[in-house]
Amino acid sequence: MSIALDPLDRKILDVLQRDSSRSLDDIAREVGASKTPVWNRIRKLKDAGVIRGEVALLDPEKIGLDACFFVLIRTSQHDKDWLERFLGAIRRRPEVLEAHRLAGDIDYILKVRVPNPKAYDDFYRALISEVSIFNVTSTLSMEEMKSTTALPLPADAE
Prior knowledge:
Elements: H1 7-18, H2 24-31, H3 35-47, E1 67-74, H4 80-92, E2 96-101, E3 108-114, H5 117-130, E4 135-140
Antiparallel strand pairs: 1-3, 1-4, 2-3
Helix pairs in contact: 1-2
Keywords: DNA-binding, Transcription, Transcription regulation
Pfam families: AsnC_trans_reg, HTH_24
Protein name: Lrp/AsnC family transcriptional regulator
């Protein structure tokens, strides 16, 4: 369920998405408000779950994770036990950055970061040893052309 965001909320969220380490003074100055209302808004947005956390974004290549694979998974099993094993397997693997259940011919897609293709093969072998998968198609990203964690902040419908 979404919550209503006013223009000041959206300005604050925009600033925080770009750099949440900025001081309250900097944020207030950029959004054109004083510190106390900005601090209260940030607290309100955290309490409402709009702001889920604050993290440091790392450059994967600078820490040796040069290969990004997208893994398309089809399964012939859709029962609760299989799903629990699958969720457990992907949640235990730090290589899995994202996992989505899809509509259409493909059941799941994973975004996997590893140092190299050999490490991906190790990941793949570990995954299929934990859960039965009907079909896996893996694609290696040759170039990351856009990557952002910033969400678009649409204006409220009027």
